[in-house]
Amino acid sequence: MAKHSQSLAELVEKGDHLAIVLAYSEAAEAMFAENNADAAYFFLTHAYIHALEAGIAEAQQLAEKLKGAGRL
């Protein structure tokens, strides 16, 4: 999430749901790269929740990833 110029709190305050989903998704990928699956799925779950709340199409893809891993 450090790649973003705005903090997650700022994105939430602005209501930029797509940016929030992308930030959490990027954090998940970083955790997968570090072989930290628990942290990765934590971030993916947050991305999924925000995508659902905002009605963003990425929610379906995130759900499939979580279901495939037995996390949803």
Walk me through this protein's architecture:
- The protein has 72 residues and is mainly alpha-helical.
- It is built from four helices and no strands.
- α2 runs antiparallel to α3 and α3 (37-54) packs antiparallel against α4 (58-68).
- It is flat and about 30 Å long.
- The mean pLDDT is 90.
Secondary structure: elements and pairs:
Elements (H helix, E strand, L loop, with lengths): L7 H7 L2 H17 L3 H18 L3 H11 L4
Helix pairs in contact: 2-3, 3-4
Quick tags:
mainly alpha, 72 residues, flat, 4 helices
Radius of gyration computed on alpha carbons: 12 Å
Mean pLDDT: 90
Order of helices and strands: HHHH
How many DSSP H or I helices? Answer: 4
N- and C-termini, Cα separation: 23 Å
Let me know the number of strands.
0
Work out the strand percent.
Answer: under 5%
Helical/strand content category: mainly alpha
**Residue runs with pLDDT of under 50 for 5 or more positions:** none
Brief sketch in words of this structure:
By secondary structure, the protein is mostly helical. 74% of the residues lie in helices and 0% in strands.
